[in-house]
Amino acid sequence: MIKVGDSLPAVTLSEYSEVEGNGCSLGPNPVDVAQATAGKTIAIFGLPGAFTPTCSAKHVPSYLDNHDALKAAGVDEIWCLSVNDPFVMGAWARDQKTDGKVRMIADGDAAFAKATGLTLDLTGKGLGLRSNRYSMLVKDGKVVTLNVEGPGKFEVSDGATMLGQVK
């Protein structure tokens, strides 16, 4: 499993853009993790799935609620990663009203989750291989803090905990 001090894996994720701008085309766009994190401080949180109860009712809202304070504390971007396709993540972004606050990034084939060792096997529940619930603070592509939740828990990966670690 990835740990504090490690570099993020060199994988490419995907993000759905609602509008054209800043060189982004409509539709899914690649997110090269190494390039996108270079020189930035990023709060990343991973979760099992879009539109799922805890993820929608608590996890994403905790980062939306703490967005302004995280930015004021020096976080350049907030990323939500999930093993879903970019179209689902785009629809979930609209539903959660994350535009301009949280980048909803798809780890469609679980490349990031596998490379970091942060997988959760929900095969018996019909969900297949997913991402564990976690958060990490990343500076210039390196992990500064890592908070991995126990099975079925939501106690250490929320936005308020991340804010306490950034300060």
TrEMBL record:
Q: Which PROSITE patterns match?
A: THIOREDOXIN_2
State the reactions this protein catalyses.
Answer: a hydroperoxide + 2 glutathione = an alcohol + glutathione disulfide + H2O
Alphabetically ordered keywords of this record: Antioxidant, Oxidoreductase, Peroxidase, Redox-active center
An example Gene Ontology CC term for this record: cytoplasm
Query: What InterPro entries is this protein classified in?
Result: PRX5-like, Redoxin, Thioredoxin-like_sf, Thioredoxin_domain
- Recorded E.C. number(s)? 1.11.1.27
Keyword field contains Chloroplast: no
| Thioredoxin domain segment(s) | 2-167
Keyword Oxidoreductase on entry: yes
| BP-aspect Gene Ontology terms | cell redox homeostasis; cellular response to oxidative stress; hydrogen peroxide catabolic process
Q: Where is the active site?
A: 55
A single GO molecular function, which one?
Answer: thioredoxin peroxidase activity
Q: What does this protein do?
A: Thiol-specific peroxidase that catalyzes the reduction of hydrogen peroxide and organic hydroperoxides to water and alcohols, respectively. Plays a role in cell protection against oxidative stress by detoxifying peroxides.
**Family affiliation:** Belongs to the peroxiredoxin family. Prx5 subfamily.
Q: What is this protein called?
A: Glutathione-dependent peroxiredoxin
Q: Which organism is it from?
A: Ottowia beijingensis
